[in-house]
Design goal:
Elements: H1 2-9, E1 28-31, E2 50-54
Antiparallel strand pairs: 1-2
Protein name: Tc1-like transposase DDE domain-containing protein
């Protein structure tokens, strides 16, 4: 863990930028029904049902 933390203590170098990534998994989803049109001044209503489109691969 200390080796990783030392990376953040290094001075900034424009030739070797520090890039941080989130390792959390993400999932693509699509709505199964269209959202309901609303009256002016009221919040948009969206159904909680969705269709799974699989996990993307970020490389």
């Amino acid at each position: 863990m200390e080796d990783v933390l030392e990376v953040y203590l290094r001075p900034r170098n424009s030739k070797m930028p520090l890039v941080c990534l989130d390792e959390a998994s993400k999932q693509l989803v699509a709505e199964t029904r269209k959202s309901i049109a609303v009256e002016p001044g009221k919040p948009k209503r969206v159904d909680a049902e969705y269709r799974r489109c699989g996990p993307p691969a970020f490389l």
